[in-house]
């Protein structure tokens, strides 16, 4: 095996400078095309890019502006514009001079004066987090900056983040939380502490007399929300929700009588009114009295103490909480959850422009949230992300129409479609490992939705189309794929990129245009050998059996088995989940079925 790996890697490292590999590989009876893109290019060359449209069922980015990661020039707004034809977005913040000293920590204290300096039209937009979420925070700031929104503040829960944001020029204040700088994980005690920090922050800012648009760091703004929020001046609170069934088909507030899902506190707008301040205080007292209450559940419990009547006939506002608080629910189609955006593409079907995207309804932890935003091409990564050592490999899967469209949408047809794609992806991962290249994952098609609970395939009343382009974390364990697994047990790491990677305006044009066609061939046929020599200009051929050997290699198998997750969940059965199996084709008669006994309830390894 090592000989094959060395020979193939030698071939992959050959000229031309910009290397792309196009491969035809037979997977069962399927012809699949592979492409490898080199990331070796001259740093002095132009990096202009062009926009490429995405699939009709995808959720394309709302902004096609080019740009690198958040530069060091990110506290004073400027009108400096980017150079014509460059890949840099307009600069809106300027970093402190590099030879200056860091101000004392006390100067970053949250005060009414600090908020007043940043507020515009009496509104301040706030998010907060620790250093583990710095890339999310920079993405959040960058989107608002690109929308010409500068009345923002970021709360730092650790001094490492505070210092990093200060030196990038991002308006930051110290929350005095002294939290860990690592990712705390959803549902952990530290996670719940972060929720309480949000409540304390709301209670600290509202008495200053400013309107507060509070945001989680795992959301991005796609359109300036302030004009929309200003349309409802009588609202004490406007909140997003987890509603997945549309209640309106335009940009009005959601119909509160039809919203059965939880109010989601990842995006909500507070006015400094007496009812809002009263709710904030009761919410704080509730959470401080019982550390087991989740902050969002606490808010919902209080807000829903009374629901209705309507404030008037037209606004969509209604009385809630104690009967005096005027509450509005932001429309689910344009203040998008992870479901209404990535699964339903509700805004797209209703021909609306979304304001916000919140990475809820996903299954891969923080890594899954980041990957979702990358799939939508709304996450800002550093240039090195687009310049992977060894280059990239991409393939275009060939899916029979019968698997995608024919027959009923049920467990059998869903798993047949997924397994077909999974087998091709397994081969692609083997090739990527052999060539030491980063695999650009293909678009993934699903017939059935994935949730945390039993359902009939898709949620009744939702706008989910079947089939639909599903997020990678619906099938694959994105957090595991991006994790550093011990090489002695799982072999060398195989890096991945999101399916939309090659369409991203931030990808250098040289990478897009640089390729070498490669064919996997049968050993013994003409010009079929692992070598740096091309059989004809622009074509490289090497033996297919090297890939087949790789898929049987023990460490590779160990890695692959952990790359896939579960589908959830069948009705009237406990447990209702079904494990995906990367090597389903090695098990004659394999059928999708939930575990029948506790002993069967484990992944296929």
UniProtKB/TrEMBL annotation:
Keywords: Membrane, Transmembrane, Transmembrane helix. Residues 67-90 have a biased composition (Polar residues). GO terms for molecular function: arabinosyltransferase activity. It comes from the Eukaryota. It holds the Pfam family Nucleotid_trans. GO terms for biological process: cell wall pectin biosynthetic process. Coiled coil: none annotated. GO terms for cellular component: Golgi apparatus. The keyword Transmembrane helix applies. Residues 149-373 form the Nucleotide-diphospho-sugar transferase domain. Residues 67-105 are annotated as: Disordered. InterPro entries: Glycosyltransferase_77, Nucl-diP-sugar_transferase. The chain crosses the membrane at residues 21-41. This is Nucleotide-diphospho-sugar transferase domain-containing protein. The lineage of its organism: Eukaryota, Viridiplantae, Streptophyta, Embryophyta, Tracheophyta.
